[in-house]
Amino acid sequence: MPKSSPSIDMTPMVDLAFLLVTFFMLSSSFRSDEAAVIDTPSSISDMIIPENVIMVSIDKDGRKFFGMSGKDEVKTRLLGSMAKKYNLKFTNEQVKEFVKMTNFGCDMKEMPAYLNLSSAERKNFKTTGIPADSLNNQLKDWIWYGNLEALSAGEEAFLEATDKGLEPEANDFKPKFILKVDGKAVYVRAKQVIDVFRDLNLNNLNFVTSLEHDPRKKE
Amino acid sequence: MAEIAESGGGGHDKGKKRAKKQSTKVDMTPMVDLAFLLLTFFVLTATFSKPKVMSLVYPAKPKDIEKVDIPEVNNAITFLLAEDRIFYYEGAFYPEGNAKGKPATTLEEANFGGGEGSVRELLAKLNHFVLEKKVTLDADLTSKKIADSTYTRMIREAKSANEALKVLIKTDNDATCKNFIDLIDELKIADIGVIAPVDIMQSELDLIKAKTVK
Prior knowledge:
The complex is a heterodimer. By secondary structure, chain A is of the alpha/beta class. Helix content of chain A is 41%, strand content 14%.
C-alpha cells in the first residue's frame, strides 16, 4: 500500500473562503452609529425603507432624535437655517461633525457643545432629546427646514434626471417621513411627534418595523 | 517565477548539486488565516434584513376644529389601548344617562394572537364584507378574469364602501408603541381601509380605569 501524504490539498476550501469573503465584503453596507439604541416592534409590512428620508426616532424613554438622509450640502444648509433661527454660530469643524452624524437628540443650545465632542463621548452625553412641546418646538423647526432642504435638493435632482431624458417620478424625489419608535416607548410620546408632523400638514408617516410572518400567507 | 537560485557560495568541491533546488510553493498559511478571519468578521456583522416600514396615513388636521362635526358612521368599532391590554366597543359611544336614552357603552376586552377572543377573530367577523369580496377578487385575478389595475381599484372601493368596517383607535397614557403597532398590524391583516387614530375622551378613560384597576 502506497504511503499517502499527511497533507491535504486545501485549495478548494481556500477558494471558497475567498469567494465568501468577497461576497460578504461587497454585500455588506456599514451602518453608521445612531445616537440611541431603538428596538422596533414587528409587523407584517414588507415595504422596504425608502432612500430619501427624514427620520424621527423615539427611544424607550421617550427622547426624540432627528436624522435625515441626503447629501452633505443639504445637511449643511439645514444647520445653517437652524443656526440663523436660533441665533447660533457654528465653526466649520462643527458643521463637518454635524454632517457626519446619522442622528442626534439634543437641545439647540447644547448643539455647539455636543458637536465638539468625539463620537465616542457623544454616547454618554446626557440629553433630554429634542424639545417638541408647544412652547419650545425645536423638532418642528428641524422637520420644517429639513423638509424644505430635501425638497429643493430633490427638485434639482428631478430636473437633472429630466435633462438626461429619463422620465422620473416626482414622488421619488420627495422626502419620506419615518418614525422609528421603540416598542417600549409610551405611545403618548410618539403622538407628540405625530402631531408635529400633522401640524406641518405632513400626514403620510411610516413606522419602522422588523418583519414578521404574515398569517394570511401559506407556509 | 518564485524560484530563486541560491547564490552559490563555494561548496561545489564535493561534486554535489550546486544549489539546493528550492520549492516553488509559497507558504500561504498566513494569508488563509487572514482570509478566514475576515470571513468570520463579515459573516458575524452582516445583517441581511433591511428594516421595513409600515405606512400609515393620518387624516389632515382640520383648520378650524370647532366647525368639524363628526359624521355618523354606521359600521365602526373603537379600540381602546391600555398598557398591554386592548378594549373595544362597537358603534358610537353612549355615556351613562345619555340624552338619547341608549344603554351606556360597556367595554369588551380582546387579546392579541390568533385564537379565541382575539382581535384577529373579531375583525374577521366584522369585516367579512371586505374579506369575502377580496376572496372573489383574488379568484378572479388568478383566473385572469380581471386586470391588476382593476383588482387594486376594486379592493380600494371595497375597503372604503359603506359596508366596510371603520376603525377608531384611542390610546390611554400608558399604552406603548408596541401595542399601537400590533393593533395597526392586525388591522392590516384584516384589510381595514379606514383607520383613524383619534384622541381619547375622559369618559372612555374612566371606563378603562374601571376595567384595569380590578
